Amino acid sequence: MSAGAAMPGGPAGPDGRAGRADPAGARSHVTTHVLDAVTGRPAAGVAVRLEARGADGWTTIAESVTDDDGRVSRFGPETLAEGVYRVVFDTARWFGDRPTFYPEVVIVFELAAASEHYHVPLLLSPFAYSTYRGS
Q1: Mean pLDDT across the stretch 15-38?
Q2: 125 within 8 A of 38, measured Cβ to Cβ
Q3: Cα separation, 123 vs 58, whole angstroms
Q4: Cβ neighbours of residue 58 closer than 8 Å, sequence gap 6 or more
Q5: Residue 11 has pLDDT above 80, yes or no
Q6: Which of 28, 57, 119, 128 has the highest Cβ tally under 10 A?
Q7: If you average pLDDT over residues 39-64, what whole number do you get?
Q8: How far is residue 118's CA from residue 9's CA, in Å, rounded to a whole number?
Q9: How many CB atoms lie within 10 A of CB 64?
């Protein structure tokens, strides 16, 4: 893979790695974090997608994979317009051959203040999940 090329699973950040912050610590307007509620550990390797709702439906803005700490700090642009967005988590692929009731988790939210950061965490288990507005 050439220098600066995106890794599989998502667009490259300024450092050339998907889902990672650049050395200056910049982060995107929207970030996410997935925790495995069964083990109490970060859920590394979850494929995630950020989409925006438009007049013609949903448009993908960014794709990435959670890092070893279960986080995606570079998830799309540093600035987004106010509007409705969703984060789609590919939980079926992450659970693999373990049984789960939720093959995909979709969290739809409104970005109402363009000046604020939006953190969308997911607490995940095979038969339940929860989310909240993080900081």
Answers
A1: 70
A2: yes
A3: 24
A4: 51, 52, 86
A5: no
A6: 28
A7: 97
A8: 22
A9: 29
Query: Phi then psi for 93, rounded to 5 degrees?
Result: -65, -40
pLDDT for position 10:
38
What pLDDT, on a 0 to 100 scale, did the predictor assign at position 4? 34
Q: Indicate the length of the chain as a whole number.
A: 135
- CA-closest candidate to residue 26, choices 88, 117, 122: 117
Angle 19-21-25 from CA coordinates, rounded to 5°: 165
* Spatial separation of the C-alpha atoms in residues 45 and 114, rounded to whole Å: 29
Nearest to 49 by CA among 86, 93, 99: 86
User: Rg (Cα) of the chain, in Å, rounded?
Assistant: 14
Listing DSSP states for 32-97 in one string gives EEEEETTTTEE-TT-EEEEEEEETTEEEEEEEEE--TTSEES--S-S---SEEEEEEEEHHHHHTT
Rounded distance between C-alpha atoms, residue 110 and residue 93, angstroms? 27
Q: With 80 as the cut, is the pLDDT of residue 13 above it?
A: no
